[in-house]
Amino acid sequence: xxxxxxxxxxxxxxxxxxxxxxxxxxxxxxxxxxxxxxxxxxxxxxxxxxxxxxxxxxxxxxxxxxxxxxxxxxxxxxxxxxxxxxxxxxxxxxxxxxxxxxxxxxxxxxxxxxxxxxxxxxxxxxxxxxx
Amino acid sequence: xxxxxxxxxxxxxxxxxxxxxxxxxxxxxxxxxxxxxxxxxxxxxxxxxxxxxxxxxxxxxxxxxxxxxxxxxxxxxxxxxxxxxxxxxxxxxxxxxxxxxxxxxxxxxxxxxxxxxxxxxxxxxxxxxxxxxxxxxxxxxxxxxxxxxxxxxxxxxxxxxxxxxxxxxxxxxxxxxxxxxxxxxxxxxxxxxxxxxxxxxxxxxxxxxxxxxxxxxxxxxxxxxxxxxxxxxxxxxxxxxxxxxxxxxxxxxxxxxxxxxxxxxxxxxxxxxxxxxxxxxxxxxxxxxxxxxxxxxxxxxxxxxxxxxxxxxxxxxxxxxxxxxxxxxxxxxxxxxxxxxxxxxxxxxxxxxxxxxxxxxxxxxxxxxxxxxxxxxxxxxxxxxxxxxxxx
Lengths: 131, 392
Description:
The structure holds 2 protein chains of 2 kinds. By secondary structure, chain A is of the alpha/beta class.
């Protein structure tokens, strides 16, 4: 199944879906060395975002979050791709400087997808494929 | 967003990977905020300098970049005086990482002036009507409001992208339609000095990201406007304000304004800030938020003349100003006070070892408790100096 979307950061990647209805503050919510969500109040607490297609409404919090995404990528524990309902500047900038495909303007239903479903994100052609 | 043929080529990567990513940042932000196109900027001020704020993650990113800035670009304050960091009690490890951050910016062609007051150093960075990409919230407010230039509140990467590409997306405060007053504020009191910081401290939390237009009985100086704007950008996120008859006027006629609130303030409202945050028991006094001008250094030197401080007293300014007036610095330091450059009490971890800091700045009053974990007291410049001299 194909879903249309809007490119924020270019690239194409696939991986298992990891879905949350909570916004993410990469500074504070995620350990930059391991990719594990460390905020007990977050829906993804204890989960590792490495290699996933991370689906979340959008970012929040400190602008330093952009650099944390870059650090995750350099440690090899970043998501393979990210999908937002609506991207805001922190995650958008983080994805771009890290070379992680990021798309937004997708239907809200995507937040009800089951974790682990294989997804391909092709930001360049504005298409998400559920494999 | 519309891109010229030349901009398209950059976006396709024909001028290298760094520029391709920088253009991608500008286009992504332009799309998010609905910009129609890019606009050339006259200068850039880059955030993400204090190692306390950017950490290892930010340092890694900046160090990995290649290229040269194409417009005059300077920096926000760093986490320490780049020369006298040992006197500030900064650790060797922090100092090494702060120096590495500065070197990474130097390699990109950025001028190493670390200050929140670029307009006090160079007239050439901003004039009325110029488009800019500035980052430090008080500098943004001053550029938009007092100089009449046009800048959004840029983050570190978006400012650096503007510096390397020479352009920024045309949205927000770059457009007259977003520069209309939203709050009318009448101030029925004679104010001076730190009173403007108190006024900004109050108004920022009311106005939030709105555009206040002040009717004032007294006529603020440039330093007082600096203080007012800095406080509103800290207790709120005000990036533009007007003072009737003092700053450049709004670009549209009153009929086109969409005013959502009218506010009247009296002297007791201002006095309340001093009463709520007494300077008593402070173990350090810190001045220069935003960085002191020559005039402010002169005032401080005058008040300290012939006296010795009984408490730690920091005076923060830009290195270029300190270097231009070595006599003033010497006169201040004769009292035992320290003139620190490149940094300030808000962004330096050196503040964290004190219990309570007395300041004359509404901006520092907003930030010190949250960012440094230090209690804050508020007073006029004279009260701050008296506290440092052990007179209270």
